[in-house]
Design a protein that fits this description.
heterodimer, A: alpha/beta, Rossmann fold, 4-stranded antiparallel β-sheet, B: mainly alpha, two-stranded antiparallel ribbon, 77% helix, globular
């Protein structure tokens, strides 16, 4: 599997705190890569470094073979990197449909210039994530689970090549989680590579081809889900050492 | 086009036609009031682009106004150029200023942006006071043109163009980018909006209309000095009018400018001394009872009735 995204020795410091420390990994074409780790492990920072809302202190990031380490966020979006936010960032005053239309108007390849066509595309994405009947509501009126879906629809409307999902399942119940898993599988089937950050281990194990574990900003494991989850260092990071 | 939309379009066309014909059958006083109100409406509409649609509460728009005024004055007085060329010169100055200062200042958000722009007019006033070609702190006297009908129609034309531009914003990719920036700037940038460029372009567009209004005003009044050209209270006025009418709507700021101009005119002719106080009361009441402006009241009133005001009152916890 050839890599679409490559992260090479990336470090990010916030003053004294090293949020991400010398991390390297690749995301294969059409792969679903799960990233897990306890709170504060640096997962969201990693997504921000890739999507461009943060710049690394050192290290390099490559997308389809070209260096994007210092590219502005909007240019990465136009190259085909879409992301969702853990703390949802809808456009609260806009309708659900228009929230998604923004993704179609801009997004990958700098998007669709015609508003009516962008809205058409947006409507199709809303159906994919199951928000079709909320299209004309204002985004701020949506409840939690639907806001997660909206985040996903907005990113998808950009027609990205890589989708970075920051905890799209947090706060959902088991049925809703299964729905999201289905949606993500469909997205992958359409040819999009996905990096998923998640707390729900069961869900991410079911979904991912490969798992990456972060702990205190360091990568402590990278491999097939079963092997990674039985790794003693990973168990220790999550549960603490059995006996001191 | 839905029936209600068609109704709005027809109503707007009729209002513009009536306004255009107004000078034919009204007194000089009314025409002069009209020129002032129309120019204020242009300023409110110009502010609407950067403040209402992009979400950057600019206190620097009076700089654009001053640059437009001085553009016309310098071109006409010092270089003997026609008025039209002066207007273009003034607008060009505004665009240059928007790019030069917009790039650093638009990096700031919220209150920081407001405060940074608050200083700009003061600085420009001081700079212009020391420029020979701008008449230093004495100012410039323009060649008088005694044709209020012309100034009236020019102002009306400019307001129509500004409003059509804002209408275009609401259905263009560019306008959607601006709204996305207002609603959530980081969210907009990761979706592919070139936020820096869009903000500067919005600032410049806002500046062009403001400068053109300043240019018309300067030629009409025939005199300008640094203090009145870069007057910060004018900036406050345009914000109040836009917010009163409904920021981020196409017709709200125009409505706000007309209503408040009329109120302020009536108050200052009837109660003179207390006019300022009454004006303040009107503004406070508006902010408390209808924080999203007249435009929102008109949209919601049919559904909610008088409850609309009660609910806003409650939302303020008064």
């Amino acid at each position: 599997m050839s890599a679409i995204l490559e992260v090479k020795n990336v470090t990010r410091r916030f003053a004294g705190l090293v949020a991400v420390s010398d991390i390297s990994f690749t995301l294969g074409k059409n792969e679903i890569l799960g990233v897990i780790g306890p709170n504060g492990a640096g997962k969201t920072t990693l997504v921000s470094l890739i999507s461009g809302t943060l710049r690394p202190t050192s290290g390099e990031i490559f997308f389809e073979g070209s260096r994007i380490t210092h590219l502005a966020a909007y240019r990465r979006a136009r190259l085909g990197i879409g992301r969702t936010f853990q703390i949802m960032r809808p456009f609260p005053g806009l309708s659900v449909l228009d929230n998604v239309a923004v993704g179609a108007l801009f997004g990958h390849g700098s998007g669709e210039s015609d508003l009516a066509k962008a809205r058409e595309k947006a409507r199709a994405q809303l159906d994919v994530v199951g928000l079709g009947k909320f299209a004309s509501q204002r985004a701020e009126e949506l409840g939690g689970p639907n806001r997660k879906r909206l985040e996903l629809a907005k990113a998808l409307a950009m027609q990205p090549k890589v989708l970075l999902c920051d905890e799209v399942m947090a706060g959902l119940n088991l049925v809703e989680i299964d729905e999201v898993i289905e949606v993500l599988r469909k997205i992958r089937a359409s040819g999009i590579s996905i990096l998923v950050i998640e707390h729900v281990i069961k869900a991410i194990k079911k979904l991912s081809d490969r798992l990456l574990v972060l702990h205190h900003g360091n990568k402590i494991a990278d491999g097939p889900p079963d092997a990674v989850l039985s790794n003693s260092e990973v168990i220790e990071a999550y549960l603490g050492s059995r006996r001191a | 086009m839905t029936a209600s939309r068609l109704g709005v379009v027809v109503a707007v066309v009729v209002v513009v036609a009536v306004l255009a014909a107004l000078p034919l059958f009204s007194s000089d006083v009314i025409i002069q009031f009209g020129i002032n109100a129309l120019l204020l409406a242009v300023l409110a509409q110009g502010w609407n682009i950067i403040g209402g649609y992009t979400g950057y509460a600019s206190f620097g728009n009076s700089v654009f106004y001053g640059l437009g005024s001085y553009g016309v004055a310098i071109a006409m007085v010092q270089w003997n150029l026609p008025f039209g060329v002066g207007m273009i010169f003034g607008a060009a100055l505004a665009v240059a200023f928007a790019f030069l200062l917009g790039v650093p200042v638009l990096r700031l958000k919220g209150h920081y942006f407001a405060i940074a722009t608050l200083g700009l007019a003061q600085v420009m006033s001081a700079i212009v006071s020391n420029i020979g070609i701008a008449g230093q702190n004495i100012g410039l006297v323009l060649p008088p043109l005694n044709n209020d009908h012309l100034f009236y129609e020019l102002s009306l034309g400019l307001l129509v163009i500004a409003t059509l531009t804002v209408f275009w914003l609401t259905r263009s990719r560019f306008g959607f980018g601006l709204i996305a920036i207002r609603e959530n700037e980081e969210g907009a940038s990761v979706m592919g909006v070139n936020t820096t460029l869009y903000k500067v372009l919005a600032f410049a567009l806002s500046g062009v209309f403001t400068a053109l209004a300043g240019g018309i005003h300067a030629y009409w009044i025939t005199f300008l000095d640094p203090e009145s050209a870069f007057d910060i209270s004018l900036n406050v006025k345009m914000i109040i009018m836009a917010v009163f009418g409904g920021p981020g709507t196409v017709l709200g700021p125009v409505l706000g400018a007309f209503v408040l101009s009329a109120v302020s005119e009536i108050l200052s002719s009837k109660v003179t001394n207390l006019a300022g106080l009454f004006f303040g009361v009107v503004v406070v009441a508006a902010v408390v009872l209808m924080p999203r402006g007249v435009a929102d009241v008109m949209r919601q009133f049919r559904r909610t009735g008088w409850r609309y005001f009660a609910e806003n009152l409650r939302a303020h916890r008064i």
